[in-house]
Amino acid sequence: MINEALREINRGAAEIIDSERVEKLLKAYFEEGKNYTVKAGFDPTAPDLHLGHTVLLQKLATFQKYGGRVQFLIGSFTAMIGDPTGKSATRKVLTKEDIVKNIKSYTTQAFKILDADKTDIVYNNEWLDDLGAAGMLQLASNLTVARMLERDDFSKRYASQTPIAVSEFMYPLLQGYDSVYLKSDIEIGGTDQKFNLLMGRQLQKSYEIKKQQAVLMMPILEGLDGIQKMSKSLGNYIGVTDTPNDMFGKVLSISDDLMWRFYELLSTKTLDEIAALKVAVEDGSKHPKVVKEELALEITARFHTQEEASNAKIEFDKIHSKSQIPTDIPEFECDGDVWIAKALLDCNIEPSTSQARRDIKQGGVKIDQEKVTDDKLQLTTGEYLLQVGKRKFAKLKVK
RNA sequence: GGUGAGAUAGUCAAGUGGCCAACGACGGCGGACUGUAAAUCCGCUCCCUACGGGUUCAGAGGUUCGACUCCUCUUCUCACCA
Question: Going from the N-terminus, what domains does chain A have, and what CATH number goes with each?
Fold first, then answer.
């Protein structure tokens, strides 16, 4: 049982520092029913989460299953400083209203994965506001500039003469101080957070907390392309607020290799179940597409409902596997006889009449499922279903 | 501040007086194929009710029968020097 728990906790983790501590905590839970705390910090700078963020949440949920109590820390104070991680420029500061709004949307999204009864939402301004100048100085005296500059991001910026605000040095310190205040037993975060996570251990030691927190780092999830990290700016993400249809379709579009990665990091299936699926695909008893659909269903259902997920699957099959017509098609109206190319342009399924004529020539345009061959065709009064390629549809009513 | 190089379609990048609506690559779009929105192959890729017309190669002028290509100025970018 305890081994099973350890396996699930280790699952997908990039690195664990002080894994003996984790083992001890688990042992105490299984043998004496003692709980422990797992801290994870969230930066309320962007309103929407994508699947990359949920990797951490998923791991927290695993801990909750095995006696962990989650300290869901909102960086309400630190959001005003700007964490330099990953960005090589000083970040802009958010207004209070933005932060409050973001927090709200964060937590509703997070509780689709986390067990609310085993989660404490904490805001770090609660104790950081009171830290005061004296406390701040004391905190800062624990670290030297040389040690700060060890951080990869800082050293790069320093070397390339990109400005580093002194306040940015405070960020890792404050994040570390959060762990001191909360007396966290374990902290988890992405690999890009390593420096900050270790700071928690360092400061806990300085502030004479007997046991330093263990640190568990999760890898950064790849995006749909399977190469770059999942991020909004790269456009290769699956947002947790994506519509069921989008979500389902996006998961199905990933490569077979990436599918296993998603299984490992995002599925709630156990490692044994996943291993079984892998074997089944390899020996041909299961089709990889079926396995991928299972994954897509699971993920879609988590953020929507079971029913919406199944509908998304039906819709997907309709359009892609059987090349039928989707359910929702935008409708348009126009007067008199219309030239087909102009009609396609007006329905926003072609960018120009030139492009429309090209597509007609190549046999890519259909009216009511019939291929159009005449690029001079005039549409007379009636209703038409226009289609360009496999995916662009419009209904047009000619009066 | 000085000197030199450069600015070409969504992006990168050829083109040094007519053969240029402009090579090529990527992207995008169609088609075939596929379990897939992947991979692969084929075609298309400025606009216009079009075997023709219009507007493009940083901007403004000029030379020329004719300019993306030559000249002048302007704006911006980069490199080296100070």
Answer: 2-218 (3.40.50.620), 244-320 (1.10.240), 331-398 (3.10.290.10)
